[in-house]
TrEMBL record:
<dbReference type="InterPro" id="IPR050639">
    <property type="entry name" value="SSR_resolvase"/>
</dbReference>
<feature type="domain" description="Resolvase/invertase-type recombinase catalytic">
    <location>
        <begin position="2"/>
        <end position="136"/>
    </location>
</feature>
<dbReference type="InterPro" id="IPR006118">
    <property type="entry name" value="Recombinase_CS"/>
</dbReference>
<feature type="active site" description="O-(5'-phospho-DNA)-serine intermediate">
    <location>
        <position position="10"/>
    </location>
</feature>
<dbReference type="Pfam" id="PF02796">
    <property type="entry name" value="HTH_7"/>
</dbReference>
<dbReference type="InterPro" id="IPR036162">
    <property type="entry name" value="Resolvase-like_N_sf"/>
</dbReference>
<comment type="similarity">
    <text>Belongs to the site-specific recombinase resolvase family.</text>
</comment>
<dbReference type="InterPro" id="IPR006120">
    <property type="entry name" value="Resolvase_HTH_dom"/>
</dbReference>
<keyword id="KW-0238">DNA-binding</keyword>
<dbReference type="InterPro" id="IPR006119">
    <property type="entry name" value="Resolv_N"/>
</dbReference>
<dbReference type="Pfam" id="PF00239">
    <property type="entry name" value="Resolvase"/>
</dbReference>
<keyword id="KW-0233">DNA recombination</keyword>
<keyword id="KW-0229">DNA integration</keyword>
<protein>
    <submittedName>
        <fullName>Recombinase family protein</fullName>
    </submittedName>
</protein>
Length: 186
């Protein structure tokens, strides 16, 4: 029987250290972590690896239920997959496990709360953007690629692939800048 920890944060600038420390303190011999959104299971390779290798009696441990996911259906499907393999799921905060029947009920409710929280966050974000637009202070997200530099390289007869490599982005992003709605400033 192995205790396998799973840590997840949504963005690359967030820190996994606190979750990993808690999982170690809980006795997890294996800890897998990733920086990817919990909105769906897409792109969550580490979680998929854990699920694939669970054996009967193993335990998947997370610090909070929203680390497994923010969609109730996804969370319940994950728990079901673990159970199909004879494994258990344990959440540290609040301490709940699928070892008992009551744990299933609590995890279902917590999953619904996590999904509701995600909807509230998106709603508050949307409202904040609308207020900022109304006040004339919303400028949108900052450009991650220096468009002026892309145009300069293009004028220098560099191809899209070369520009993408020089700028550290995809070729498609370069095409969007050069040919899309973003035109060179005059």
């Amino acid at each position: 029987m192995s205790r396998i920890g799973y840590a997840r944060v949504s963005t690359i600038d967030q820190d996994l250290d606190t979750q990993v420390a808690k999982l170690k303190a809980e006795g997890c011999g294996i800890i897998r972590s990733e920086k990817v959104s919990g909105a769906s299971r897409d792109g969550r390779c580490e979680l998929a690896t854990i699920i694939d290798f669970l054996r009967p009696g193993d335990e998947l441990v997370v610090t909070r239920l929203d680390r497994l996911g923010r969609d109730t259906r996804d969370v319940l499907n994950l728990i079901h997959e673990c159970e199909q393999r004879g494994a258990f799921v344990t959440v540290i905060d609040p301490h709940v496990s699928t070892r008992g029947e009551m744990g299933h009920v609590v995890l279902t409710v917590l999953g619904m709360v996590a999904q509701m929280e995600r909807r509230f966050i998106k709603e508050r974000q949307r409202e904040g953007i609308e207020r900022a637009k109304g006040a004339g202070i919303y400028k949108g997200g900052s450009a991650r690629i220096d468009h002026q530099r892309v145009f300069e390289l293009d004028r220098g007869k560099m191809g899209a692939s070369e520009i993408a490599k020089a700028m550290g982005c995809s070729r498609m992003q370069i095409y969007r800048i050069l040919k899309g709605s973003l035109q060179e400033p005059t």
